[in-house]
Amino acid sequence: MKILVLAPHTDDGEYGCGGSLYRHIRNEDEVHYVAFSKCEESVLEGLPKDILVSEMYEATGRLGIRRENVRVLGYPVRRFDEHRQDILEELVMLRREISPRIVYTPSLHDTHQDHKLIAEEARRAFKNVTIYGYEMPWNNFTFNNQYFNVLDEECIEAKLQAVLSYKSQRQRLYADREFIYGQAKYHGVQTGRKYAEVFEVVRQVSDEFSE
Prior knowledge:
This protein is α/β, with parallel strands linked by helices. It has one domain: 3-Layer(aba) Sandwich (Rossmann fold). Helix 2 runs antiparallel to helix 5. Strands 3-2-1-4-5-7-6 form a 7-stranded mixed sheet, sandwiched between helices. It is globular and about 45 Å long. The mean pLDDT is 95. The chain starts with a strand and ends in an 8-residue tail after the last strand. It has 6 helices and 7 strands, in the order βαβαβαβαββααβ.
């Protein structure tokens, strides 16, 4: 099964659905990861401008995603709206090239302007594909807990190690073990399990049926 994760910025995919991506890889699914910005404008002074790209390749590698299935585009942070049509065309191209069964995007309720635009345009580009919106608690004042992906500790630890690969982002409050495990435990409790990641169901498409 082909999986596509859309990350507006480097690291969004790892935070939003890193545990689920690792589980897909462990199940021998083919995972593709696309970041829409190199985030050079957000790099701290004194660090190489391409550091987030290097960290992204390390992080996705820790999840088991093949390097040739990872790509990063050059849209400027917080200015995606100036390139909306180009982004839509990129998404349509990805649909034709990859033909994913599942697409992971930010939530439609995400308050970050770049995240919200990717979610909106993904809904247009992938009309006949299952789309799950991932949770970014610092951007989501509203979030519909609709699909719980139950995970084990191996998945959560892989997610943590992917997040920790972004050494330039260690100052963020959510870039640590306590937060990653706490969030997974919280959603696990909601399902009577130990760990889980939660998603909004933007669209659910199933070709399976029983006679």
